[in-house]
Amino acid sequence: MTSVIEALALGRGPKRVVIKDTIDIAGYPTRAGSAALAEAAPAERHAEIVARTLAAGYRLVGKANLHELAFGMTGLNAWTGTPANPRFPERIPGGSSSGSAAAVAAGLAEVGIGTDTGGSIRLPAACCGLYGLKPSFGRLDRRGVMPALSSLDCVGPIAADLEELIAFMAAVDPQFVAPRGGPRPRLGWLQVVADEAEQSAVEECLSASSLPTSPARLTLLDEAYKAAMAVINRETFDACAAWLDDDRLGADVAKRLRAAGQTTDAELHEAEAVRRGFAAEVDRLLETHDVLALPTLPHAPLTRAAAEAGEQDLTISALLRPFNLSGHPALTVPLAPRAGRPVAMQLVGRRGDDAAICRAASYLVDPARA
């Protein structure tokens, strides 16, 4: 399967993990799904997340495919092949951590490790009907992860089972305490622009849980999305511009990378001001709510046929990307499909309190607990 581009046999534990190919594994090249890095030298040491995963008793079974240079939302890859979406074959697998999600959905691993700079864990998880966690910024060590410098990117897990995801976080992060007991979380039902199918699915889930819920708003959400685009464009260009002259670079990524290079210092300065304002706004809202709930995606993901025909849809990350900018933890929770298409809910929590959104998800997945 093109979800896994290199088979591995590291570790002896019963639980299988696939690792996105932007994350170093000693003895293997890190190619980021790009022919431009085809001759990359093998990594000299494990990335910190790989070392922790092995130390926790997991078994690495594959390097996972991705959208080239982790700079795209469809998950398509002309060089390595595009992972199939096992649960929704007509839809894109989602990017950029497409292989990590597709491998888990196909039953090839219990956990897929991905990276999330603008939704790249949560989007493929949602597209493939899985759980995906973008931890608080800086929670999981990024040493040995491409790009080396990022103010947005987070390493995190994808799993088909919530308890599996929670167990992984507790295993690799000694500061993560698995959620147990305590008062019922207070939810803020975030008012956003999304299609009716997404809105109604989340509303039904919240109603079924009987958790205390009240409407909430983030006035800077749209501005935060635009600001996050400016930041990722500048940071990705700085990290990847060296490969622009390589004719092996995929045409779609090269085009987007050249456009990213046009990001001005003024745009970046404004984006940083929005970052501060939006992060403060989310913090204030979380003073009166334990967790914020909203659709993961504003609308259905592209069909694979449309994406292969060249259609792009960066706005699929409109409800994801803002929380990369602010640094808050965010978890996507799969809901029952609508009209044969994936639907998911996103939970956002206080910075550093990643366990709280996992706990809220437990209540929502099992309404009897509430």
UniProtKB/TrEMBL annotation:
Domain Amidase: 17-172, 232-358
InterPro entries: Amidase, Amidase_CS, Amidase_dom, AS_sf
SUPFAM superfamilies: Amidase signature (AS) enzymes (SSF75304)
Gene3D superfamilies, per database record: Amidase signature (AS) domain
Name assigned to this protein: Amidase
Phylogenetic classification of the source organism: Bacteria, Pseudomonadati, Pseudomonadota, Gammaproteobacteria, Oceanospirillales
